[in-house]
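Side project, low priority. Logging it here so it doesn't get lost.
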Amino acid sequence: MTKTILAVLACLILGACGAEEPADDTPATTETEVATTSPPTTMAPTTAAPATTAAPATTSAPDTTAGQTSEVAATINISGFSFGPPQTVAVGDTVEIVNSDSVPHTWTADEGPFDASLSPEARTTYTFDEAGEFTYFCEIHPEMTGVITVEG
């Protein structure tokens, strides 16, 4: 019977089905027997569809880089429920904020010109037009804080 199963599998896999009789005295297998004696079919592994890109971050203050192609001078990365690293930039520099966490966050100035909501994997930019030290936090997770220094 094992030779019969192997012959049937070879026939199905290699397309070598023909009028040949089995080499031994085992009777030829019928389609019904093939269906009941074949090993179970296994499914090939599937790959999950790629994640969709999150919608762009929204800002309550207008992004002064809109319509411009400004080079990013510094990046603040939100990861592990913290902002990092602290940054020092010059007046006129553009800062990019990237949410690398799997939950939404905000980038909100304590007293200042920016307030952005960032869904997971979202990013936004802000161009600083005045010098100063700007402290910020996440409205959703107030223990998350940071500072950016803008030198004139």
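Brief comment: The chain has a mean pLDDT of 72.
Revisit when time allows.
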